[in-house]
Amino acid sequence: MLLGMLSTQVGAAVAKQLFGSTSPGGTTTLRLGFAALILLALTRPGLRLGWRAAGLVGAFGLALALMNLAFYAALHRVPLGVAVTIGFAGPLLVSLAGSRRLTDVAWAVLAGGGVLLIGGFGGAGVDPVGLLLCAAIAAGWAGYVLLGKAVSERVPGTRGLALGMAVAALAVLPLGVAGSGGALLDPWTLALGVAVALLSSVLPYSAELSALRRMPARVFAVLLSLEPAIGALVGLLLLGEVLAGWQAVGVACVVGAALGATLVRPNRAARR
Description:
With 272 residues, the chain is mainly alpha-helical. The protein has one domain (1-264). Helices cover 80% and strands 0% of the residues. It is globular. The relative contact order is 0.23. Mean pLDDT is 82; it is low at 268-272.
């Protein structure tokens, strides 16, 4: 599980090496395109889906496209740790939105405060367009989680993921071609694209599925809450991106909120 999250962030660092030759749309096209081809080859999903399942897969793919496109566009403007942390706040706040418990409200406030600190409330300014793109990451990530759950309930195995990835790749393809053109066919660019697809999509998804089969859901959620910290660490070690003090505090707030929301749960079994 930790290796999967580390792989995702290392893949993002590798993707930054593409920014000199491709646009954010081009980078997204390479990642999603190669990931879709690999997953389709591995799963060989059929196309016989009901209308409702097909609609869910399509919406899931569009959320995946939005999340990835906004992520790589944001990386042009903000550090990796900032993009990952603000994006992670999206599904975290969604998970807390339906709760009426005061403790969950407190975790949501803590996460929101962390995002404000990262965004510059503490004096460390961040590119405003980059912040808007980070908000788009959060929206796409939240949609990915919600729609991914719905897809998994209607499409067995990893077929839904493979088909959703294909939809996402097709959705961003025009932007990739328009923004990068023939650069997408450069051998070195293609090699980096394959590496990004493997590191950021295929390996992490495989690791997460394996982890879900082997460990309790709560342990999985605890480990997942460390993703913002891992993103900040990879950004520091591989990209030399040093977060300002208030931004580091903001990352800690979001991680703390995720850990708190996961660990501080009522013992329902004891109430029965």
